[in-house]
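Posted in: Protein Modeling Q&A

I'm a second-year student putting together a small comparison for a lab meeting, and my supervisor asked me to include a predicted structure for MOSC domain-containing protein. I've never done this before, so apologies if this is the wrong subforum. The sequence is pasted below exactly as I got it from our records. If anyone can share the structure token output, I'd also love a short note on what stands out.
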Amino acid sequence: MQVNILTGKAQMLDPRIESAIDKRPVTRAQFCSFTGLTDDTQVSTRFHGGPERALHYYPREHYGFWQHWFRGMGLSDAAALLAPGAFGENLSGTGLLEQQACIGDIYRLDGALVQISQPRSPCYKLNARFGYDFFSVLVQANGRAGWLLRVLEEGMVAPEAHMALVERPCPQMPVKRAGDIVFNQAFDPAGLQELAELDCLSTSWRGKAADYLAAGQVDDWSRRLMGPN
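Accepted answer (user: helix_wrangler)
Welcome! Here is the predicted structure, written out as tokens:
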């Protein structure tokens, strides 16, 4: 499948929020390193970027869903922002959804080799980006957040890169299922145990799954989804 490569620079979404969520298609080949693309920027490095969150893939199919939703709500300004890169993704393509892509999937991306490491955890910067206070909540609840990838082998990628599945070691754990276990269903000890023991899942998600098991409950997501007071 063909994917567009996108990068972004830091900018202010409002007087308090700086972000590089607004990604644009690149016009030159990028070096895909263990921490991301040559021309890309990560602002909140505690929550974005790093070796296990080097890249973000967002299915382009979701844009039609959000166009319909925003226009149905009378939010034409938000709908006008919907173009590949608007969700902060570095990789934009069609033909692969959260229900199909699995944690641990390994893909050849031109000269690089990448692996799905975790679902994306949407945050309040989506709200600022689209001017709708609860948008991050909707993205999480609908399971339309995309996923993050680690880079196994560095290499060059073209602006329109070719991405092909090489290996699927964990077919039992689609991205959608992993996200639902944590975000969108009743407390699931068996599912959380499975996540905690899933070697190809990111260290942070495995640790959180173990923490939730020990606590007997998952996190309160309000600060991540709605932002600091």
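A couple of things worth pointing out for your meeting: The helical segments are 62-72, 76-80, 125-130, 135-142, 175-184, 189-196, 203-215, 222-226. Residues 153 and 205 are 22 Å apart (CA to CA).
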